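Chapter summary example: a protein plus zinc ion.
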Amino acid sequence: MIAPSLLSADFANLATEIKACEKGGADILHFDVMDGHFVPNITIGPFIAETVKKNTALPLDCHLMVDNPDMFIPKFAEAGADYISVHAEGTHHLHRSLMQIKGFGKKAGVALNPLTPLEFAFEAAEYCDYILLMSVNPGFGGQTFIDSFFRRVVALKDFLLNNDLGHVLIEIDGGVKKENAREIAEAGADILVSGSGVFNGNVEENIKAIIAELQ
Ligand code: DX5
Ligand code: ZN
């Protein structure tokens, strides 16, 4: 599945950008929430999530790069998020956060920074619908892909398949472009988030080009 990250979209023309994502064949819209504490940047919140949701039939994937995400989960659930992920490094009570997301009937994900031990994902997997592996340090679009992803996704897929958890999806986020999409998918990623790789240039064509790489 392809999940364009709206962080790199033209916010003055968000509805047009969303339509282009739909036309290109995007499966999910990825929505990056940053609080200026967990990451050195501030982005968008529940109000914009609600607006996006009203302008698309695509599922909305809210990636909460915030400290104490429990405070914000209800707000994004009410705004219409379909998927909500929290960072293992940003919550003191990961199980509680995941249960809170599921309590709203949403798909629950745990996100891990590029060098955070995979043990967190192993422990959390049975309570998750997806695991988000960061392939950049969260905070900004347009960064360079960190190669640790490849050994991590192989180990994680292996763990999931060996523990009857093959239904848990693996999402990758950061530095994904048409040039590396195939290698990433073949390594085991199920959901490919791409920001600058989609929104720099013609959005519809960029998404189609990524999809073509995956055929
Ligand atoms: C980074 C965000 C990503 C970002 C990806 O902290 O979580 O979703 O938008 O952007 P690219 O694809 O440009 O690396
Ligand atoms: Zn993200």
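Key point: The chain has nine helices and eight strands.
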